[in-house]
Amino acid sequence: MKKRNKAGTLARSKNPFLRDIAKNPYLYIMILPLAAFYIIFCYVPMYGAIIAFKDYSPGLGIMDSPWTSEFGLHHFKDFLTGPYFSRVFGNTVVLGLADLVFGFPAPLIFALLLNELRSRAFKRVCQTITYVPHFISLVVVCGLLLRPLGFNLKGYTEVFKNPMTLSGFGNTLFYVAAGTAVNMLVTTLGAYALSRPQLWIKKYVNLGIVFTMFFSGGLIPAYLLVKDLGLYDTRWALILPVAVNSWNYMVMRSSFMGFSRSLEEAAKIDGANDFLILFKIALPVFKSTLAVMVLFYAVGHWNSWFQASIYLNRRELYPLQLYLREILILSNTESMNSGAATGDAYAISETIKYSTVMISTIPILVVYPFLQKYFVNGVMVGAVKE
Question: I need a labelling partner for 127 at 20 to 30 A (CA). Which of 9, 69, 179, 345 fits?
Answer without folding.
Answer: 179
